[in-house]
Design brief:
Structural class: alpha/beta
CATH superfamily of the largest domain: Alkaline Phosphatase, subunit A
Shape: globular
Strand content: 5-15%
CATH topology of the largest domain: Alkaline Phosphatase, subunit A
Largest sheet: 7 strands, mixed
Helix content: 25-40%
Number of helices: 13
CATH class of the largest domain: Alpha Beta
Number of strands: 17
Radius of gyration: 22 Å
Length: 444
């Protein structure tokens, strides 16, 4: 009988200046017969991942909110792109961020919306260096479980962060361009360049210049190690390894092409690797995040599709006007229709990300089965700038602890931080209090 060969979960492919993590393989778990015989080997638990995806300027809530609660609900127009993964998603209505309201501080709802989104705290109104809000939920988790992975957390954005200056009605720009805070006065810098994110995931620094010089793939540097590993794997793992390495190479090529094409655009100063198209930029970052989760390079991430207050236009979907301008719709049907188009565009990209995670096999299920992904905004209706009944989704099964495929409405305006407490418990990073939390949401 062939001896079962095991490899550690933290196995890497290595080469000159390159380190490539591996997805979960059958060879990383002992066979059931060994466990039954009491061989002392314990199958590694599937890691739980947590991500927070932020969209700006609220939503056209008429096209967002399902009419019925429970499992028997119809996806409204904005959520229709989720149809292929509707069984993996919960729509959560009724959650509130009371500290995103003015509470005596006057204008500045966009700055407060993003600053409060993951902290549940009132941002100090200042345009100077004396910023203060609170630690965010992702960093509470990173402080407790981040040491188990190569990167404690990953912070992504399609907009370069601004650390200084005044942006929204006397609020510092740091509030508006960041949702991840590792301390009450310290926002986490964001990564906007897919190439730089790729290098953080797979490079160690010294080999990056060599790859550029000789135009080699990162896989060329780890080929010998990969071939040696493959010869010792079973057929199922061999196929899984081939599929994974192919996906890494395809992403690498897309990032390289994005950099080349962006460089040819006249009068545009773009960092290498950022594509000229917004949709491709979002998808490249989503793809790198999916690989980071698949390889357990990190378990915690945030991603701002755009900063709150963004006035980006969307001519490629028939919306040439600025997003922020349109969000002040004054009840006009034509403007609300265009906001709904923008909302649907963002939702289409999120659905793409969920499909990617669902296609990544992990044990008997998928990577998405072991994820908890919050998608939403710190503003509900952009015209009224309200911060109650926020547009919020929760995707994934949380390792079997969540009940997706439902629309849940919470009464009494519970703080959104109650949701975060519940997720932190599942991550093994439980805490008694976060921002304005009052307890845990039990029915998720």
């Amino acid at each position: 009988m062939r001896k079962h060969w095991l490899i550690p979960r933290r196995t890497f492919l290595r080469g000159l200046g390159a380190t490539v993590a591996l997805p979960m393989l059958e060879a990383m778990a002992p066979p059931a017969r060994l466990l039954a015989q009491g061989a002392g080997a314990i199958a590694p638990a599937k890691p739980l991942r947590m991500a927070f995806i932020y969209v700006p300027n609220g939503a056209n809530m008429d096209d967002w909110t399902p009419a019925r609660t429970g499992t028997d609900f119809q996806l409204p127009p904005t959520l229709e792109p989720l149809e292929p993964v509707r069984s993996e998603v919960q729509v959560l209505s009724g959650l509130c961020h009371k500290h995103a309201f003015a509470n005596g501080d006057g204008a500045g709802d966009h700055a407060r919306a993003s600053a409060t989104f993951l902290t549940g705290c009132q941002a100090r109104k200042t345009a100077g260096a004396d910023i203060r809000v609170g630690i965010s939920v992702d960093q509470v988790a990173a402080a407790k479980v981040g040491r188990r992975t190569r990167l404690p957390s990953l912070e992504l954005s399609c907009d370069k962060g601004r650390e200084a200056g005044s942006c929204d009605s006397g609020y510092a720009c740091a509030y508006q361009y960041h949702i991840s805070w590792r301390g009450e006065s310290t926002p986490n810098p964001v990564e906007v360049d897919p190439r730089q994110v790729f290098e953080r995931l797979f490079g160690s620094g010294c080999g990056d210049a060599s790859r550029d010089r000789y135009r080699k793939s990162i896989l060329d540097f780890v080929r010998d190690d990969a071939d040696g590993l493959k010869r010792r794997l079973g057929k199922t793992d061999q196929r899984k390894l081939d599929e994974y390495l192919t996906s890494v190479r395809e992403l690498e090529l897309r990032i390289e092409n994005a950099g080349r094409f962006a460089a040819k655009m006249p009068n545009v100063d773009r960092p290498t690797g950022i594509p000229p198209g917004y949709e491709e930029h979002i998808r490249l970052l989503f793809d790198t995040l999916a690989l980071a989760f698949q390889t357990d390079t990190t378990r915690i991430a945030t991603f701002m599709l755009a900063f709150d207050g963004s006035n980006r236009s969307y001519p490629f979907i028939g919306v040439p006007e600025g997003h922020h301008d349109l969000s002040h719709h004054e009840g006009r049907a034509d403007r609300k229709e265009k906001i709904a188009k923008i909302n649907r565009f963002h939702m289409t990209q999120f659905a793409y990300f969920l499909r990617q995670l669902k296609s990544m096999r992990e044990g008997e299920g998928s990577v998405l089965d072991n994820c908890m992904i919050v998608y939403g905004s710190g503003i509900a209706d952009g015209n009224s700038h309200n911060h109650n009944d926020l547009p919020v989704l929760l995707a994934g099964r949380g390792g079997g602890t969540l009940q997706p495929g439902r629309h849940v409405r919470f009464e009494g305006r519970p703080p959104m931080t109650n949701l975060f407490l519940s997720l932190l418990d599942r991550m093994g990073a439980g805490t008694e209090k976060l921002g304005d939390s009052t307890g845990k949401l039990e029915s998720i």
